[in-house]
Write a structure and sequence with these properties.
The chain is an all-alpha fold and 325 residues long. The chain folds into three domains: 51 residues, no CATH class; 158 residues, no CATH class; 69 residues. Helices cover 78% and strands 0% of the residues. The protein contains 13 helices and no strands. Helix 3 crosses helix 9, helix 6 runs antiparallel to helix 11 and helix 11 packs antiparallel against helix 13. The radius of gyration is 34 Å and the shape is elongated.
Length: 325
């Protein structure tokens, strides 16, 4: 029997190490040559660049809130908080300060009356003022959106026509402001876009500036199409025509929805009015029985439940009929 030494047992492992070292020296590790590794590094760097561009595009809205917004506002579109309400309502900084000062003053007045008269009912004053301000801001936002939506389809079609004649998309978008009235919200947004280019912002930042102060459901589609066309060199004219068709279809659906909602509101208020009318007739025709029903504990509960159901039904109907199209 032949004898084996410990060095003989380790010989295969040392041979493997030598082969691995030789492949590393020749640049052939993992079965590819240096040119393949360079190509792989290039593909990896390009994929990282695409990922960074994608991340930049996804976070561009928030970056614009922090850096490029001349009014210093922030926040995404989802969930309208106070600053977004001011921005979409188109209020200037002085008007925003007036809103906040009035609300703060009402709170201080309520606090003084509460301390003086020892009753917390005066704290309802700032709550009522806050609700009224919120309703006013919502009305301003809806008015600006309707003004913008009135000219938006015309803008898309005019841009499509201008691009077919050979105009640059940026030039066509800047010149489109001349087509609309001076009080148009769309013209104001186009001036913001042109001002961003004049200030030296990048094309992506300037495009994000367009429609930034308007709550409109189709603005993001327009921005994405414009950016992709500028970046990839694709045709933008056909895409703008499709966006115009989508916008017109949405506007048509909105008009039909308004008609249906108006009919629903009329029916609900008519039913509530009939309920009040029947109660008044009962009260005048049989006053004694009506007063006894109001004075009885069970009668008071039944009347309160009935009135509460009517009020809750009207409130729920108004809540459900708010258009977000």
């Amino acid at each position: 029997m032949s004898s084996w030494s410990f060095s003989d047992l380790l010989q295969p492992f040392s041979l493997g190490r030598e082969m691995k070292r030789a492949r590393a020296l020749l640049g052939e590790e993992r079965g590819d040559d240096p040119f393949d590794r360079d190509a792989e590094r290039s593909s990896r760097s390009s994929s990282r660049s695409e990922t960074s561009h994608r991340t930049k595009d996804e976070g561009h809205e928030s970056a614009l809130h922090r850096e490029k917004n001349p009014r210093g506002e922030g926040g995404p579109l989802a969930g309208l908080h106070r600053k977004e309400l001011f921005r979409y309502a188109g209020l200037r900084p002085q008007e925003r300060e007036r809103y906040l000062l009035f609300l703060t003053g009402s709170f201080l007045v309520a606090l003084l009356f509460t301390l003086a008269l020892d009753t917390p009912l005066f704290f309802l004053l700032p709550v009522v003022i806050y609700l009224l301000q919120h309703h006013t801001l919502q009305q301003l936002i809806a008015s600006r959106q309707a003004n913008f939506d009135r000219d938006y389809a015309a803008l898309l079609l005019s841009l499509s026509s201008g691009l077919k004649t050979g105009l640059d998309p940026l030039v066509a978008l800047c010149r489109a402001a001349e087509l609309f009235q001076p009080d148009s919200v769309l013209r104001e947004e186009l001036h913001h876009f042109e001002q961003a280019l004049t200030d030296g912002d990048t094309e992506d930042d300037a495009i994000d500036r367009f429609g930034y102060t308007v709550r409109h459901p189709d603005i993001k589609l327009f921005r994405m199409a414009f950016k992709l066309a500028r970046r990839e060199g694709a045709s933008l004219s056909l895409c703008l025509q499709r966006l115009a068709r989508v916008t017109r279809a949405r506007q048509s659906f909105r008009r039909k929805s308004r008609g249906a909602v108006a009919t629903q509101k009329l029916s609900a208020f008519g039913i509530a009015g009939c309920t009040v009318l029947i109660g008044g007739i009962q009260g005048f025709s049989n006053t004694t029985a009506f007063l006894e029903a109001c004075s009885h504990p069970t009668g008071r509960v039944v009347i309160a439940i009935g009135v509460g159901l009517v009020v809750i039904g009207i409130g729920w109907m108004l809540r459900m009929s708010q258009l977000k199209v």
